[in-house]
Specification:
InterPro entries: FAD-dep_OxRdtase (IPR006076), FAD/NAD-bd_sf (IPR036188). It holds the Pfam family DAO. It comes from Tepidimonas thermarum. The longest helix has 17 residues, at 45-61. The protein has one helix spanning 45-61; strands spanning 25-28, 36-39. The protein has a domain at 25-77. The chain is elongated. The chain has one helix and two strands; from the N terminus they run E-E-H. The chain has 78 residues and is an alpha+beta fold. Strands 1-2 form a two-stranded antiparallel ribbon.
């Protein structure tokens, strides 16, 4: 991939991965044992990545989570 010339503008657009309630989805998949979700962080994904990864790792390992994961549970969407 080559860089665009300095006199040329390049427009890049993309959708933000967010949920209807604007909270990420983190936790075990309700219908698929062994599958875990961690998505929907919108524009904060890069910033929240480390703490979201830690929270998910704690849940997977059965350790006490760093924060209450209830608001992020996948089941909230039915």
């Amino acid at each position: 991939m080559s860089a665009a010339p300095a006199d040329r503008q390049v427009l890049v657009l993309g959708a933000r991965p967010c949920t209807p309630d604007m909270l990420p989805v983190m936790g075990p998949a309700p219908r698929h044992a062994g599958l875990w979700f961690n998505f929907g962080h919108s524009h904060q994904g890069f910033t929240l990545g480390p703490v979201a990864g830690r929270l998910l790792a704690d849940m997977i390992a059965g350790e006490p989570p760093l924060v209450d994961p209830t608001p992020y549970r996948p089941e909230r969407f039915g």
